[in-house]
Specification:
Number of strands: 11
Structural class: alpha+beta
Shape: globular
């Protein structure tokens, strides 16, 4: 029984090349697809691939058999163990299997655990703009905003993250509130797995309902474009959990796991 694998390619190529997420039930098919992609990848894009960029070097793994997942990691060339990468999944045992294989390959594994939620019917959410006076100025995020988002994101603060955020802004739905000078003060965006991420309001603009506003407007936009409305929040982020529960989001009983795999040789020179 094979795991289900979603192959991640560099973010800016996803929107251009794929209308739907590719779900493969056979590791051999995954390797064939990966080989085909690399053969047809523009040389300019190959040069931009960064072994330190775990944001773009990402895999989503869904399996029915832990042993199959272990074999995928240990006995195939699907994963590039020479670079820093992340694996995302919802299954118990993901960390233990990854850590066992990674140790043998001299790779460190860092685990983050989240609560996963879905919003089945965004159209039922009220338009909170009507409750605000004056009405906030809404806009799409622009690539010029990537530096601010990088600085304020708990996962950011490095050049790989800033490049990644800029790519997300170019390719996927986003929303922000602008101040009188046209600068974003609150925002939310979507990653390459159609997940709501980095819903954030600058400290001096909090307690105005902006987080609810941007989350609501982005959810409606995602649904209108055929995306599911889903997200994850750190288990200790009580304000965010409270917000999404108040929006009638359904929290899944399982946990969402993000595993950052870092070869030992990178640990000495990078604070990751």
């Amino acid at each position: 029984m094979y795991p289900y694998i979603c192959l991640s390619v560099p973010t800016q190529d996803i929107a251009r090349c794929f209308g739907k997420m590719l779900v493969l039930k056979c590791s051999m098919k995954l390797q064939m697809l990966e080989k085909m992609l690399m053969q047809n990848f523009p040389e300019s894009r190959k040069d931009e691939m960064d072994d330190l960029d775990h944001y773009t070097n990402a895999y989503a793994v869904f399996y029915k058999d832990l042993q199959a997942y272990q074999e995928l990691l240990a006995n195939t060339d699907t994963i590039n163990w020479e670079q820093i990468f992340q694996i995302q999944g919802l299954q118990d045992g993901l960390y233990e299997v990854s850590n066992t294989v990674a140790t043998s390959k001299q790779v460190d594994v860092k685990l983050s655990s989240f609560q996963m939620f879905i919003l089945p019917d965004p159209d039922m959410l009220p338009d909170v703009r009507t409750q605000m006076d004056p009405a906030p100025r809404l806009a799409y995020l622009d690539v010029s905003h990537a530096s601010l988002l990088n600085e304020t994101w708990s996962r950011g603060g490095n050049e790989q993250c800033q490049r990644y955020i800029a790519n997300l802004i170019c390719c996927f739905p986003s929303i922000c509130v602008l101040d009188d000078n046209g600068h974003p003060v609150s925002w939310s965006l979507t990653d390459q797995f159609a997940t709501l991420i980095h819903t954030y309001t600058l400290p001096e603009h909090r307690k105005k309902g902006y987080n609810r506003l941007v989350a609501t407007m982005l959810a409606k936009k995602l649904q209108s474009q055929g995306f599911p409305v889903q997200g994850n929040v750190l288990e200790e982020n009580i304000p965010a959990i409270t917000l999404f529960k108040s929006m009638n989001c359904q929290f899944l009983p399982c946990r969402f796991f993000r595993l950052i795999h870092t070869p030992f040789r990178f640990l000495a020179s990078h604070d990751l």
